[in-house]
Amino acid transport protein (Pediococcus cellicola), 482 residues
Amino acid sequence: MVKLGDTSTSTKQFRWFTIALIAFNTVWGFNNVVNNYAQQGASVITSWIIILIIYFIPYTLMVGQLGSTFKKSGGGVSSWIDETSTRGLAYFAAWTYWVVHVPYLAQKPQNVLIAISWAFTGAGTYFSHFSTAIFSILCLIVFLFFMWVASKGITTLGIIATLAGLATFVMSILFIFLAIAAPHLPNVTAATPNLTSVKTYVPNFNFGYFTTLSMLVLAVGGSEKIAPYVNKTRNASREFPLGMIVLAVLVGICAIVGSIGMAIIFNSNAIPKDLMMNGAYSAFQRLGQYYHIGNTLMITYGLTNSIGQIAALIVSIDAPLRILLSGHNDQYVPKSLMKLNKHGVFINGYKMTGVLVGILIMVPAIGIKNIQELYNWLLNLNSIVMPLRYLWVFVAFMLLSRHMNKFHSDYRFVKNKTIGWLLGFWCFIFTAFVCVLGMVPKISFSDNPHSWFLQLGLNIVTPIVLIALGLIMPMIARRNKK
């Protein structure tokens, strides 16, 4: 019998192409193409190339070295920090990993409702007549219902999420082939003019451009989830980096070709304001019209995506919370949060999640009066908050680089301590930089100054409050112990 953590040759069966495919399915999604095209148009193709070279490739290779070095650590980033620094800092890394999911969970009900609307009505306008208050109440009801479902300890959701994710992935690849082939059909022309001109793909490197980079970072982040596979790779020092290079190529191809497909369907010079919210569905609907198959593609994508969104919502309520509460004692986390119900669920942790997510769902609706604007704001908030967990990957790599001689690794991205530390520092600073600039609202100030200032305030206050709560928890824990 092979024991967990055994790194014998017999267990090292993954090849470079296996690693690349696992990582690709973890990192990439069709909405990455839609959301970034919505913000930058066709010029996003150049941005993809830049972000892959200066950020994504070193990021994934750092993850490879960390995962290979700490192969027996099951807590991910917090375990890496624990090994290279202090238990307190490891707790804070785990807190960050959990708390950044709060805005993510707040938007999932929106995605569920929109996906169902497209699948069953053939349009994204069903909820457009609702006030933001009513829409937010519906989202809160959806969230609370599925949080209740998650509290029952459903064990088959991982399988459902995997199948739905695979179906959505297949639809994303199908989109690329159909969109690129569409101009060769009779009576179909590219919506964006001058697609053969280099100028079409040159970004305007102004302040507004840099405020959109956080969405690109959000799109390529998350490869730390594949760290456990490093030591299951045959000849990890050679095949794992090769797998990461193939991953970068796959992501690059899908990002670039997918963005060209979007430019064929949507005019880059006149991007619809609701493209983030409805773009994926509208794209499949238009492809169905091009190929004379009606709404078949759109309905298929809507159904698979709605199932995937529901499964992701339930899994994301439970999994990050387990990482936080299972890995730390009552020195940092109040003992009351570790209470388990009969299904083995951290029930009080669920309640804390429900309160924070509920506030984030309802409070913005007071000042944001347009559903499309509310959706776009919450998506942009995710691009500000979610990358904060990537910062700990780079902190861990900097700490590892300082103490490289103390740890053994089958695979090393960088062997020089100074270069390794500088690369980790670069990725840390770049991530922090785009997160701060991402706080600038993406709406016109002159059109609605009140909403602009409200969004700016929420973008600044939300991450500060969420992170600050992590400082308060150990104080409560110590007080409870007394």
